[in-house]
Amino acid sequence: MAIEKTILQVLTEQKEEIENMRTRHLVARREETLFDFDSNLAQVVIGVRRSGKSTLCHKVLQEHGVKYAYVNLDDDRLASLKTEDLNTVLSCVYQLYGTDIPYLFLDEIQDVDGWYLFVNRLLRTNIHIFVTGSNAKLLSGELATHLTGRYNEIRLFPFSFAEYCSFNKIDVTSITTKAEAERKSAFMNYINDGGFPEMQKIRNKRGYTESLLEAILQKDIQKRFKIRNIEALRKISYHVISNSCQELNYDELAKVFCMSDKTIQKYISYLQQAFIIQILTKHSYKSIERIRGAKSYIIDTGLQNNRENSLAGENIGWRMENVVYIELLRRCSEEFLDVYYYKPTSKDKEVDFVICDKIKTLELIQVAYEIDSPKTFKRETSALVAASNNLRCDKLTLVAYSETKDVEVDGKTIHIISIIDWLLETYNV
Fold it and tell me: Percent of the chain at pLDDT above 70?
């Protein structure tokens, strides 16, 4: 009875929290359209901690006007819950919300061992289930194994620049000098401070970022994978974050941190599974070539300089490249498209991103902060032209900080677009 009393108290407090949410204005997220309310599939939202997964689910459930119950398992009072306790949770849900509840939202459920058995049982009773989680391998692996296709997976990232502008009430349509200046200022703030929703109204951004990273390292990685040397994990994660947009050299990292390359690879994998980093592989028709020379990008550029002793560089070009890649992941995942980078040999010029539909190349994208000098312009455009000939793709895009225009280079049309316009446009490949 003691555990039931605790659960009931927690769920009562959580019910009051979601009632207060109904009066708040929430930013529209592009992932809202990916939910399938009428199906019998579990709606599963995964992504990095504090990217807004819970808020997204509450928003779509409330806007659809459905009756739903809410259980947030990322609560210290529920930390000791076991599989057999989930039935008590369900009993408490019925006591609070009624036995005819059609939708149940289970927040951060992966912390309970065997949670998938509970979800499977509820799906068989025709209850519509919403689930969130912050660990890709654990959640996706168990879903694939135990829910056998009975789920709709939705990946959520921190705010895109368009969502950032919406939250901060930045005019994205006016063509006045003042409006354009405000968008440029907003963009510089965005690539420096990032798009975590809670970060937007916090003055102590360093404190927020450090606490977020520690929560991810301790809860989503150390606790889950039983890592003993948390300090080594912390140093490696900070190093990778500070060196985004770069190739991962496991041998070099092993020497720097005095660890085996296998351990380094495991730690990098853990960072990817917890969504701190995203991996970009090389475009090649040979699988071994795709594995070699993988590059890492951080999930949000705000993680790069809002930390103690970060000494983050001011390379706006790299920050732009990182922002473009994360935006491509948002856009391409909806169309089931793949993203690579192109550099067939060490002598070839690199193209930042190749968008593919299976083996067909749809678009080549280069990112550069400054293209005013003839030398820089030639370097970036010649890379696109060479890759265009090799991959038989004529949709060539150069994302820069400058104005938007089309240019002809060696018989190829290259669409130069300012990064602000590119981030705010409706994307079509």
Answer: 97
